[in-house]
Amino acid sequence: MPRTVLTMAAIFALAACGDEESTPRKQRKPIFKDMLRQSEFIYGSVNGKDPFDPQKVAAAATALQQLAAQPWPLYAELQNPQADHANARIVQAPEEFRRKAAELQRQASALAAVTRSGNPELIRPAIGQLQQSCTSCHDQFRKRGN
Ligand code: HEC
C-alpha cells in the first residue's frame, strides 16, 4: 500500500534525523564551520581580500566570541573518559584541552574588543593570534581527517 510505504519513509527520515541530532560530534560541526567562516571573513577584511567594513567585522567578531564558548560542553569525554566516541587525545590530556579552549575564548574576547576601534591595523594581529589558538589546539587534539 502506498500509504505504508510513505509511513516507512517518514520513519526512516526521522530516525536518520534523530541520529544526526544526538551525536555530539555532529552538533559540533556547524559550530566549528561557522567559527571558520567568521574568522576567515575577518582575516580577509584586514588583509585586502574583502573590502574592510568595520561594522561587518565587528558583527563577525561578536558572533565568533559567542561561538568560541559552544563546542566544549559537547565533548562528553571531558566529564567521562568512557564516553562514546571519545577522542583519546582529549582523554589523555583533558586539562590541556580545557586550557586551549579557554585560550580561544580569551583571544575571541580580545578580538571583539579591538574590532570596536574600527582600526584594521589593530585587528590584524588580534585575528592572527586567534587563528594561532585554533591551530595550536588542532595540532594537538584534532585527528587526521577529522
Ligand atoms: C580546544 C581545541 C580547539 C580549538 C581552540 C579549536 N578547535 Fe577546531 N576542532 C577541534 C577538534 C578536536 C576538532 C575535531 C572534530 C571534533 O572534535 O568535533 C576540530 C574540528 C574543526 C573543524 C572541522 C569540523 C568538522 O566536523 O568538519 C573546523 C572547521 C574547525 N575545527 C575550526 C576551528 C576554528 C576556525 C577555530 C578557531 C577559531 C578552532 N577550530 C578552534 C578542536 C579545537
Automatic annotation (TrEMBL):
BP GO terms, sorted: electron transport chain
Domain of life per record: Bacteria
Pfam families attached to this UniProt entry: Cytochrom_C_2
Entry GO MF terms: electron transfer activity; heme binding; iron ion binding
Alphabetized UniProt keyword annotations: Electron transport, Heme, Iron, Metal-binding, Transport
GO terms under cellular component: periplasmic space
Binding site for heme c: 134, 137-138
PROSITE patterns: CYTCII, PROKAR_LIPOPROTEIN
This protein's name: Cytochrome c
